[in-house]
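Progress note, sequence design subtask.
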């Protein structure tokens, strides 16, 4: 029996619907259930062919559990090793390398010293930084946000260097990035599942949360195809099985704003019935596909083209 498990936290609508949908398909030898963990022994199989991860970004214990499960052959969605290594600033760097437009972005060291460090720990960091050069490159208005994500927590919109310094003083030990604000005409949030299935959702982030999907933007079919191409390009390079990409169109150019969302919102009450139906059905079909292809004891993870290309290079030895 191939078991598909879903690992989740406080959310309820998507996990329950996902399990019910997989089981309703009555695929011979495949069953879905919420993941159950009573102990985690090193190198012991998890008992699952596939695990959908919706919570390990908030629970380090779960991230370690998933890595252990993957080592024995579980197909974890998303790859817990890559998810541990990835962050939003690198996402922007990779996007530039593969030809997807992104806002101008600069990485900033934390305002306060990290624990167990002192000024001597930063011998290689210029003081002061080239703030004039940074502000000239990014421009204002700009957004300052944590480099590793966290939704809308600790996100600031800034209109001047004076506002920047004021808010930067509040960021403590967070590593931040300063990013060009894209004054967009239209905005889209796009599910991508399996690096091949895309759902482009009209979205308005300036609306109240419950009305953000209540939007309709007038764009051409050609632009919609470009959006889909960018979504696929990004997820295939990163290696995410389940992700959302947010794209903002300014002057006819779609900019990838946020595309490090490996546990994206899939709640019925926020994404709406049509989007919810698509994500439940597509996730169920993809999980079944992965379960049927899974082989015990082998690497069943998805690795993006960035890692696969690096792994294919010869090892340098003396």
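Output:
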């Amino acid at each position: 029996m191939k078991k598909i498990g879903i690992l989740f936290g406080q959310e309820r609508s998507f996990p329950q619907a996902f399990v019910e949908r997989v089981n309703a398909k009555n695929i011979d030898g495949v069953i879905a259930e919420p993941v159950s963990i009573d102990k985690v022994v090193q190198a012991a199989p998890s008992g699952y062919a596939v695990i959908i991860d919706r919570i390990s970004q908030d629970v380090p214990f779960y991230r370690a559990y998933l890595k252990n499960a993957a080592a024995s052959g579980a197909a974890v969605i998303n790859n817990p090793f890559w998810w541990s290594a990835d962050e939003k600033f690198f996402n922007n760097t990779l996007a530039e390398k593969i030809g997807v437009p992104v806002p101008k972005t600069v990485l900033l060291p934390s305002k306060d010293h990290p624990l167990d460090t002192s000024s001597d720990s930063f011998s290689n960091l210029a003081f002061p930084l080239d703030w004039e050069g940074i502000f000239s490159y990014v421009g204002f208005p700009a957004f300052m946000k944590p480099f590793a994500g966290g939704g809308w927590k600790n996100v600031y919109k800034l209109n001047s260097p004076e506002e920047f310094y004021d808010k930067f003083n509040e960021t403590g030990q967070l590593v931040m990035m300063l990013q060009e604000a894209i004054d967009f005409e239209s905005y889209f949030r796009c599910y991508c599942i399996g690096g091949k299935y895309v759902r482009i959702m009209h979205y308005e982030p300036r609306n109240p949360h419950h009305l953000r999907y209540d939007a309709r933007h007038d764009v051409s079919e050609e632009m919609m195809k470009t959006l889909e191409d960018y979504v696929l390009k990004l997820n295939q390079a990163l290696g995410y099985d389940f992700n959302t990409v947010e794209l903002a169109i300014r002057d006819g150019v779609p900019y990838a704003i946020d595309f490090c969302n490996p546990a994206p919102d899939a709640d019925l009450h926020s994404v709406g019935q049509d989007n919810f139906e698509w994500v439940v059905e597509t996730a169920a079909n993809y999980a079944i596909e992965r379960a049927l292809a899974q082989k015990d004891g082998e690497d069943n993870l998805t690795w993006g083209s960035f890692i696969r290309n690096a792994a294919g290079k010869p090892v340098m030895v003396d």
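DSSP finds ten helices and twelve strands in the chain. Work on this subtask will continue into the next period as scheduled.
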